[in-house]
Amino acid sequence: SAVPGVEEEKCSRSDLSLALEDCMAALDLFLQNEFEECAVHLFYRTKDSMYHALTYATILEMQAMMTFELPTHTGCRNQPVKEAQAICQTVRHRRKSTFSKNFTEDVCDSEMMFLTSEELHAEVCYAECLLQRAALTFLQDENLISFMRGGIKVRNSYQTYKELHTVLNSSAYSQGHNHGHFEGGVKLGVGAFNLMISMLPTRTLKLLEFVGFSGNKDFGLQQLQEGSKEGTLRSFLCNMLLLCYHTFMSFILGSTGEGDVEDAEKLLQPYLQKYPKGSIFLFFAGRIEEIKGNLDAAIARYQECCEAQQQWKEFHHMCYWELMWCFTYKRHFKMAYFYADLLSKENSWSKATYVYMKAAYLSMLTADDCLTFGETACTLFRQVPGLKQKIAGKSLPTEKFAIRKSRRYLVENPIPLAAPPLEMMYIWNGYTVIGKHKDLTEGMLKTLDEAQKKLDSCPRTDLSIDDQCLLSLLKGLCLKHLGHQEEAEHYFTLVLCNETQIKYDHYLVPNALLEHGLLCIEQGRRDEAIKLLEAAKQNYKNYSMESRTHFRIQAALHKARGRRENGT
């Protein structure tokens, strides 16, 4: 067996080097919006080159992930990943002995140390295939437990990355011509696993650590950061993961919805300079402006993104989704309806969610305004339960939430929802966006006050407490962002006081405890914050969007305990 990195030095232009160069050229086409040309460029060698097969599969997976097309694409697009795996498993690229033995550190460390350069690249490519399939599973139901249910496949991927990281740092490892690409692949996997596992709730994390998994957020971010700077095939993927983390994962699943916008801008800038019309980078430029609360700048970026290319029309849907929210934050409900309507007609991710949002926006308009749309909120709400779909036997969490909320419209004389678009806005952590601008927050508070007057003017029903608690939670959030902390705390406490009278919207109580806890952290009342957050975590289960709430509670607890340990 050869020492790693030595074999490729026998020829300055090995097949591996040529394949990597060709895949880099294909990736360049992709980033220039030449999506079809990129796919054709890669496809003709997917049967005989592991890097062509992997890059082709990666691009298809990325398109599925970034366009909400998971139901239709996941099944058919798993095939290229499986084919890439198969190439890695052939005798030519991957020793059978590596697969025939259990993945234990003692065996694999010794085995890995005597793999040729090409075989090492096959190891990292194989692990990457498994990682992609696991990531798609997580995106479908937002539950990292599902990510781990890949069982031995995910464990093999994790263990392989761990062992390859050991190889990289071994004195016996000899760097060859393609070392940068190999190192980038290892940093991508090690970084991604550490980052994803670190976000899990403590109880789950302890269970995973028992079976061999571990995750360190700072180490994961460091690995991805280093991988993004190398100028290799994986640099773009490391960059994309970091951008997604800072602008989506930490925003939606973090305690306060605060990603590191400054880091995201630094990551994006060089790509935006090199690819000024690259739709992916224009999209993230819009997302960064949106998170900063610069809604007009965000809208302009999303519209520019849609105009930049017409080959990958599905990517427009990502922009439509964000445009819908930008206009929601501005309380331009007619424009928000327009984009929800486009999504309901053109995108298959969740028809139930899109139709629910259409109904939600119409419910905020006058009866005369609704006439111009040719639809009524009640009719649309009644359609939502019939649009339920399942992916791998599971419904999307957002879809389940929309269906539960719509059920009150199935009776003959339904009791209207209090402020449905503003409620869904909370589910997607939108109050963090408007909270950065006083005028947006005051405007939203005004809309909530109008909803309160409407609720007060209606006869009391068995759903009145549910609606009142929702408005209390949302008003508390607005008041917190406006600096009225005592009033905000009053409204969060009101939800808890009415806990036993809530009929259906039980998710409001743990979320009110979460928001109250975050307010206490801001005020330096750390012990009280931890008590509230632990109550939210331990005392409630089987409520709407539970997984998402638990992610946020975990992040908040980490923040509270970190500040207490630091004495700040």
TrEMBL record:
Belongs to the TTC39 family. Keywords: TPR repeat. The keyword 4Fe-4S does not apply. InterPro entries: IML2/TPR_39, TPR-like_helical_dom_sf. The keyword Phosphoprotein does not apply. This is Tetratricopeptide repeat domain 39A. Signal peptide: none annotated. Pfam families: Iml2-TPR_39 (PF10300). It comes from Tetraodon nigroviridis (Spotted green pufferfish). PANTHER family: TETRATRICOPEPTIDE REPEAT PROTEIN 39 FAMILY MEMBER, TETRATRICOPEPTIDE REPEAT PROTEIN 39A.
